[in-house]
Amino acid sequence: MAVSPPISSPHALGSNRTRNIMLQVLLATLPGVLLLTWFFGWGTLINILLAGSFAIAIESAILRLRQRPVAFYLNDGSALVTAWLLALALPPYAPWWLVLVASGFAMVFGKHLYGGLGQNPFNPAMLGYAMVLVSFPVEMTSWPVWRGIEQLQPALTPTLGLIDGLQRVFAPASLPTDGWTSATALDLLKNNSALTLDELRAAQPAFGSMAGRAWEWISLAWLAGGLFLLYRRVYTWHAPVGMLAALAVMSLLFWNGSGSASNGSPLFHLLGGATMLGAFFIVTDPVSGATSARGRLVFGAGVGILVYVIRVWGNYPDAVAFAVLLMNLCAPTIDYYTTPRTYGHSKPKRGLGKVDQP
Amino acid sequence: MAIILTAVLVLLLLALVFGAVLGYAAVRFRVEGDPIVEQINALLPQTQCGQCGHPGCKPYAEAIANGEPINKCPPGGEATIQALANLLDVEPLPLDGEHGEEKPPTVAYIREAECIGCTKCIQACPVDAILGAARQMHTVIVDECTGCDLCVEPCPVDCIDMLPLPVTTQNWRWNAPQPLAGSFGSQRGVA
Amino acid sequence: MSTQPRIWDMPGGIHPPQNKAQSTARGLERIPLPKRLILPLLQHIGRRAEPIVQVGERVLKGQLLASSHGQYSCPLHAPTSGTIVAIEDAPYPHASGLTEPAIILDSDGEDRRIELQPVADYRSLDPVDVLDLIQAAGISGLGGAGFPTATKLLSRPDHRISTLIINAAECEPYITSDDMTIRHYPARIVSGIEVLMHILKPDQVLVGIEDNKPEAIAAMRAAAQDTTIQIIAIPTKYPSGGEKQLIQILTGKEVPSGGLPADISVLCQNIGTCLAIHEAILLGRPMINRIVTLTGAALQRPTNVIAPIGTPIHELLAFAGLQPERLHRLVLGGPMMGFTVDSAAPIIKTSNCLLAATREELPPPPPALPCIRCGLCAEACPVELLPQQLHWFAMGKDYAQLQRHDLFDCIECGACAYVCPSSIPLVQYFRAGKAEMRAIEQQHSRAEHSRQRFEHRQERLQREAEQREQERQARAEKAARAKAAREAQAARAQLAEPPTAAPDLARIQSRKVSTLSAEQKQLKVAAATARMALQRVQKQLATNPDNTDMQKQLPELEQAFAEAQQAFEQATTQEAR
To answer: Which of the listed CATH numbers 1.10.10, 3.40.1130, 2.60.40, 1.10.1060 matches domain C371-486?
Structure first.
């Protein structure tokens, strides 16, 4: 009797698809993207467009090289998400070659060299970001000034027009190099050793009321997007809460008052820099993070602690990328120690201990 | 000069002390492991078929322990070679075709109508899996048969067949999904 | 009873579309008597029943066809009257599509039954006798696995059962057979539960029903009003009807891994089994029918039917108005844990639902994407495994890690594969992994067994060889001693009277040297045979002197021997001349 291979249960399947998850992540970034565009002009959108096209082109090329079905894999939208998040992390109006190098590194070294989607130990977007951050520090620290600064500091002019923006990206030499960027609040706090926080805030318009003008609003937009994803159950609360809580606790412990030696308030750290983007869009990357719910909590907390350590005692004003990459390294170990307890077992199997050979 | 002498003496003394400690530890905390032959033998399939050129698995295990190649066991196949390579920390080799090819496990069946009761197969069976007496029909205890083939040759009337175990609802099993051609994904249902 | 005892939550779980309304509108119907029934000998977990009828025999409804074979077995009865036409391999409802030995019964349409022997007053019986009645009625669990019920009730004889749980959760989509069973026979079910209570004497009886079956809950509450049985509505969540999950929901306790519910003083029975027990004890009917849900969009009139065990699936589908052109996948059981079957196979005691699904209902699975470790599977898993990790290790055949991640605690409920956004057939990976690990385990124990047998054989052969060697040595020694003694004697004799023995010796030597011709040999053999025969008879006569036959034979044999000996001697002396 000829037996055709049976189809395994379950026969019913849910409607959730990888593509939906990816699209929801993109949707959740929209408030942040809109605010970024409002404050900094077209730069973010140009970044997204450039990084997205580069990533898709590179992904197609590599898939063809690896003799994989191109359309099938492009369709999952993962390349677009990687590029999109990378574009959000890069400063607006980053030169086009910088975007190319970052997204190329992310796709080739971050993803495909490890075997493609689902196989990468590191967050590809952060790998690309960290690579250009250490290679091109000048370009990477050139954050443009925001809409409204010209009223406070007439010497500075924000780049708001589309033509100006394109020029900055493709032919930066044709524009004056001064007056369109300024230090971020994190930079200023890091380099401050003389002024109290109040004096600093008065002297530098970059400090907003909480964590840097424009930044605090954009952070809140990331938070809103993150809450949407939590509501849609795209990921669980563990990693973001772990990261934010650890960062809050660290900044509370090492606050050091509001004098000149201050390390910044918890609110400053939570809403400043890339904290919120990291908490809701980066540490939630399931591929390179820890596996179990408890593991993700630990993973997030590790990122939070490292972000604070690097920000305050390290060499870089912001540290989400490095913190995430360092914790990616730890994820397998975290997994070993956070295996949940299975039904019917009195205790979970944890640790690297002896595993019985089959 | 005195300094050099002191140094030499101190070093000697240290060497003696540490040597003594190490020696003591080696005796006191000795790990009672299986002798290597037993460990190798545990990995062999115990068909006792002799295809490796040794009269049984244990002798082959002894030979491996004495440096014979690990790729002479067709019934064990790649899995056994891999396991042996892991145990002995050597490179896994492809199965040596000289000793036979890896085949799905089989069981001997005696066509009982043709059996003349010569007992030759009984003497050949390495695990006493054939029942019978002189001038009596013989039969194979299926559960004990290792599929070693050794009974086929001596049979004067060629009444022994090596047959694969039949698939029944009792021993049927699900196959793992096959990966989609050229991808890391997998295809449901294709067994 | 309006107040409900506390219930617990189970981890994970999913909420697939219910699809239960389709099959509950038509009540409970009876299908026309099928012409031919296929009765597999294996309708339960364990060993096949052994047929006790012959081909060609006429049987009556309820007559025993096959008796149980060992403890893990279940007898089989004729669902209707008719003739046994064959006992052979027949289509069988199994995921493999392989056949199983079955008794084929052609019905005569008369449906004449054997005399029933109901036991109205079972309470006066010893529980063990009631268990025997349950076993004799051929009852095995109707819920899913099909454990022989009497065996299950006795699974841990040394443990007292404090909580009896009746499983009416019916958490799988589409299936409504338990629901309809309750709606139609609440009183009989309660009576069946009381039989179980008589056997087990539990402290409490909990009936768990998902709250998407309000009619069933109301019916059971009404029927159980005057009893201590508690009807508990539990939240609708798949797989709350898994035995371990229901126990967790109702008692908050977990069945130890690798153990049985009886280990925590709990016993679980399906609601259909309770009905079967009532019918077996109080009505005297063996288990020959069951209630089956016929559903799916390929059926015109989805419904629930009472069908004889062994009814071919195609007859059931025809009854429910199958539209063959719309049928895309035929599943026995629910869409989460059922398996595809061929419509030639019959239904058996465990078959609770037939799902004739269209392509829209159960579309072909999309090609799987790589796992992105999103963790939705781990959130859905009711036993808190990490399916994404298990998938990884199953692909890499890392059995040590699969063991570490408790693959064998997976209940194959399919919740993980259901939620997987990459549509990875996780359950198939796990099934294959388990099968492979079991096979390896079996191979190892077999190899170990073979090794022992081989070594025992080697020892035996060596022992035999040694024994032979010893015997040989002993013989050699004896011969040597005898020779030495002879030589010594000869030496002495030589000293005393030297040459007298010489002629004798010469004669012997000459005899030995002389070779016998073929004819002589034959004669010698004949003489020897005759002597042997004579000696045998003489010996037997010595022990048994009254044997007249032998006495008669003796002179004949004596003569035959004398003749043969004479002939031989003649021949030799002739030659010597």
So the answer is: 1.10.1060
Rounded distance between C-alpha atoms, residue A292 and residue A290, angstroms: 6
Strand partners, C91: C99
* Tens digit of each residue's pLDDT (9 = 90 or more) over A260-301: 778 888 888 998 888 999 999 999 999 999 999 999 999 999
CATH hierarchy code of domain B36-99: 1.10.15.40
pTM of the model: 0.82
Cα B2 versus chain centre, distance: 63
Q: Which amino acid is at A232?
A: R
**Cα–Cα distance, C54 to A97 (Å, whole number):** 87
d(CA A341, CA B40): 36
**A8, A67, A119 ranked by CB distance to B182: nearest:** A67
The alpha-carbon gap from A6 to the nearest alpha carbon of chain B, in Å, equals 6
Of the candidates C359, C360, C23, C279, which has an alpha carbon nearest to the alpha carbon of residue C170? Answer: C23
Q: Residue B3 is inside which H or E element, if any?
A: helix B2-28
Question: Which of chain A's residues have a Cβ under 8 Å away from the Cβ of B191?
Answer: 5-6
C21-357: what fold? Rossmann fold (3.40.50)
**Matching residue, tokens 């963790």:** C375
Return the amino acid letter for A177. T
Burial of residue B39 (CB within 10 Å: 0-12, 13-18, 19+) is: middle
Residue B99: both structure tokens together: 């000793």
The answer to whether residue C569 scores a pLDDT higher than 80 is no
CB pairs B-C closer than 8 Å: 99
Integer CA distances (angstroms), A29 to B119, C311, C505, in order? 82, 58, 122
C505 class by beta-carbon count within 10 Å (0-12 exposed, 13-18 middle, 19+ buried): exposed
Q: Is A167 on the interface with C (CB under 8 A)?
A: no
C447 close contact with B: CB closer than 8 A: yes
